[in-house]
Design goal:
The complex is a heterodimer.
Chain A: H1 3-24, H2 27-30, H3 32-58, H4 68-71, H5 82-119, E1 121-125, E2 128-131, E3 138-141, E4 147-151, H6 152-157, H7 160-175, H8 178-192, H9 196-217, H10 223-234, H11 246-257, H12 264-290
Parallel strand pairs in A: 2-4
Antiparallel strand pairs in A: 1-2, 3-4
Chain B: H1 2-23, E1 27-28, H2 29-37, H3 44-56, E2 60-65, E3 68-73, H4 77-88, E4 100-101, H5 108-129
Antiparallel strand pairs in B: 1-3, 2-3
Helix pairs in contact in B: 1-3, 2-3
Classes of the chains: A alpha+beta, B alpha+beta.
Chain lengths: 291, 130
């Protein structure tokens, strides 16, 4: 089989066949950060295989057999000419989506923060700003000038241990820079539109990031405090527009009820998944020339 | 150094707004400075400059009373809080990746399922203690 056919087949697998499997996988719930990396690696693999398929279709000429880099089409001769140029053009679209997602989120945060710093009360909750509003909510603004925000409704409804657990969860988002992974997932969703990868990547990555932050919070807080805090905030007076992602809260609380960290063999095994997914397209270019 | 100045300017903006909101009436720069000075020394000209910035940003309205400007907030603190909460609860913002929520809010149908999940958690806690 030609390299173009192999790559095309892999592209279809990564965009259509693998996303539903990964979304249904149980191990991602036990090792959420690895799950996030696997989703992003799957997206990277999809993009690079589409790009390399295009390149192979335009210029299927055999490569210079002088080392792996040549085989993979990464030699100086191989990166000039029409085929690599068109392949690079294919990469431009997801790159633009990523840039758009990152700058859009940053602009939104800056606008929100400016107003927040004026209207919120500081000093009432250590490490967080207080918004004087009855609806219970807790959220964070990531980025260089990060803020954690607690509404008066949440402050009134939560016990001190529950609030501490919720704040630890938010700090985990900030220190883990989870917003960057969320932006990358959003860019992938925009790139692949209604295809399975495009539909699944963003909600899946978001849920896994929440679970990763939950795990981090559990290092210093009990599952019960964290789950109760989630229950209190989730069932608070919700406006109609926000009633969408409830299954996520449920999945997280059910997970806390049955909390088992991932075993080491599982971690080692699944750590290979992102690396393998990301590297495979390059290997597929080489494969026909190796036999 | 430059960064410190910028940061303290932001804080001063918040302090000025905080006072005008809690007083609930128009006030002169002199009144604000005197109140700030009960806590820490701040120059009159600094407060005057920052009040001018807040006016330019549309956060403060002002009119002349005699020789001095009298300032008052353009909108109430509650109205800004409502705007922020709308954005935070996702009913207006078009940039969903901008904020990270502790937990999404859920429909009443799901509350029962959630209570069951919490009860299961309590049961497993008690099993652990035994």
């Amino acid at each position: 089989m030609s390299a173009a056919a192999l790559l095309g087949l892999w592209a279809v697998l990564t965009v259509v066949a693998l996303p539903p499997l990964l979304a249904g996988a149980r191990w991602t719930r036990r090792a959420p950060l690895l799950g996030v990396f696997t989703w992003l690696a799957l997206g990277l693999s999809a993009i690079s295989s589409v790009s390399l398929t295009v390149r192979q279709l335009i210029d299927p000429a055999p490569h210079h057999h002088a080392g792996l880099l040549h085989l993979c089409g990464l030699s100086p001769e191989a990166v000039s000419g029409t085929a690599p140029a068109v392949a690079a053009l294919v990469l431009l679209y997801p790159a633009t989506r990523l840039l758009h997602s990152l700058t859009g989120a940053r602009r939104g945060r800056r606008r929100h923060r400016t107003l927040l710093d004026l209207a919120a009360h500081r000093g009432r909750i250590p490490g967080a700003l207080l918004l004087d509003h009855p609806t219970p909510t807790i959220y964070c603004l990531p980025g260089r000038h990060a803020r954690i925000v607690v509404s008066r409704g949440a402050l009134a409804a939560l016990t001190p241990p529950q609030l501490a657990a919720a704040l630890a969860h938010e700090r985990a988002h900030l220190t883990g820079r989870h917003h960057l992974a969320a932006c990358a997932a959003e860019a992938l969703a925009g790139t692949f539109g209604r295809l399975p990868l495009g539909r699944l990547v963003s909600p899946e990555v978001r849920t896994l990031l929440e679970m990763a932050a939950d795990d981090r919070a559990l290092r210093g807080h009990t599952p019960r405090a964290l789950a109760t805090a989630m229950g209190v905030v989730a069932t608070g007076l919700a406006p109609a527009a926000a009633l969408t992602a409830g299954h996520q809260a449920l999945a997280r609380i059910e997970r806390l009820a049955d909390h088992r960290p991932a075993s080491r063999p599982l971690l080692v095994l699944t750590a290979a998944a992102p690396a393998g997914l990301a590297g495979l397209p390059l290997l597929l270019v080489c494969l026909p020339h190796l036999t | 150094m430059a960064r410190m100045v910028v940061r303290s300017l932001g804080e001063l903006e918040a302090e000025i707004m905080d006072r005008l909101w809690s007083w609930g009436r128009p006030a002169t720069v002199r009144e604000v400075v005197d109140d700030l000075n009960t806590k820490r020394p701040v120059a009159y000209t600094t407060v005057m400059t920052v009040a001018g910035i807040l006016h330019t940003k549309g956060l403060l309205n002002r009119h002349k009373a005699g020789r001095a400007w009298v300032y008052e907030p353009a909108r109430s603190r509650d109205s800004y809080t409502a705007t922020l909460m709308q954005e935070a609860l996702g009913s207006t913002s078009d940039t969903p990746a901008a904020l990270a929520h502790f937990v999404e809010q859920i429909s009443t149908d799901e509350v029962a399922a959630l209570r069951r999940a919490l009860a299961a958690l309590d049961a497993s806690d008690q099993a652990d203690e035994r």
